[in-house]
Amino acid sequence: NEFADLSWEEFAATRLGFRSDRRELWSGVPYLGALARSDRPLPDSVDWRRSMQAVKNQGACGSCWAFSAIATIEGAWNIAMGVRVLLSEQQLVDCATANQGCGGGAMSAAFNYYLDGGAPICTSS
């Protein structure tokens, strides 16, 4: 497998996840009660295969927060607009400074980055 040639230290440094005591990372997180709601009835089932992009690989960068936030935005955009877009995780890793880049972060801070006008939504090239 892809990890067989890594020492324990190399594996731990690149794959064991985000550990942070930074409370400010979670400050200002909106709660569901603050979001707009729709009175439309929910469908009995949803087939997400036509709304989501292919699975992506973050590699050794601790950017699962960026990949999960971008996948959420891509899916929501497709459902709302009927258009599939491929957005840039790297933009969040580099520019959403409330998170820690490849050192980890939170989806909520990524969403706040866009909601606060941190950048236009740029597609991957």
UniProtKB/TrEMBL annotation:
Gene Ontology biological process: proteolysis
UniProt keyword list: Zymogen
Top-level division of the source organism's lineage: Eukaryota
Pfam families: Peptidase_C1 (PF00112)
Spans through the membrane: none
Cross-referenced InterPro entries: Papain-like_cys_pep_sf (IPR038765), Pept_cys_AS (IPR000169), Peptidase_C1A (IPR013128), Peptidase_C1A_C (IPR000668)
Organism field: Zooxanthella nutricula
Entry-linked PANTHER family: CYSTEINE PROTEASE FAMILY C1-RELATED
Name of the featured protein: Peptidase C1A papain C-terminal domain-containing protein
Entry's family note: Belongs to the peptidase C1 family.
Gene Ontology MF terms in the entry: cysteine-type peptidase activity
Record has Ribosomal protein as a keyword: no
Domain spans labelled Peptidase C1A papain C-terminal: 42-125
